[in-house]
């Protein structure tokens, strides 16, 4: 009897705890978040928006299945596979955070801000520790931040269909989740502003080419689709070389992918990092690329040849404060004396 009483008290405490958010009923199932320390907004952390097939981690993700019970959205510790001082991440990483003010009325439909983090297409972090919501939560908006696949799992560029631009396709999947579910959190699915920096900004500019309109406004910070180094060339060698380093024998790209799918993602990322998979200008080989036309294709030609679908969209383009501060302030005079602007000038300007 005493144990039952203690259990009931524990359950009652959890349900009534001031940091425990209310349950939100979404089309994808019930979700419970957690209030921030001050109790002025609720955080729904680590909500799945997609599922990566463990038998095909380099292929298309599928929408997250509906929750059969309350999903406890209280942790956003999962990262997509990447090298961040050390190899980290898990392939089941397609999660997002939703932040909503506590004073929302049932009739309210607040504008939504959807952030796509940068990371050079080799990594990204959408969690609260890196992207704290406190500043934007001072305004009447719903904020969403996401993880998406990058590097070898998100941006291969192969001559076989179904393995290219997965990171971009993850972003589209997340935007579709927003369209279907954000109203349950008090957001307006018809007032979505997408914003991002660096690779996130370049991704947004590429998403202007998607057939289906997924947002109404965009803020592009320090990066566009016409940035000369953004689009990769077809290259089957990346997965083959990584697989060989891990014991694979052969030169067939599909066989190499099949071999890699059985290896822990952290080990794959570690080898990818050690091989230093960059081009001669120190840009990653894993990044967006032109893919074969298909139902799920994102980029079927070079951006310069395509007409972005921007009619009736509000767009702001600029750059972040102290852009590239990781490089320019710490470089010596020789870096600037020997800097070559050729890559910046490789556009069809007819003159240089």
UniProtKB/TrEMBL annotation:
Signal sequence interval, chain numbering: 1-16
Organism of this sequence: Arctia plantaginis
PANTHER family documented for this protein: CARBOXYLIC ESTER HYDROLASE (PTHR43142)
Source lineage: Eukaryota, Metazoa, Ecdysozoa, Arthropoda, Hexapoda
Alphabetical UniProt keywords: Disulfide bond, Glycoprotein, Hydrolase, Serine esterase, Signal
Positions in coiled-coil regions: none
Domain spans labelled Carboxylesterase type B: 22-333
EC identifiers of the protein: 3.1.1.-
GO MF, one example: carboxylic ester hydrolase activity
Record-linked Gene3D superfamilies: alpha/beta hydrolase (3.40.50.1820)
This protein's record includes keyword Transmembrane helix: no
Official protein name in the record: Carboxylic ester hydrolase
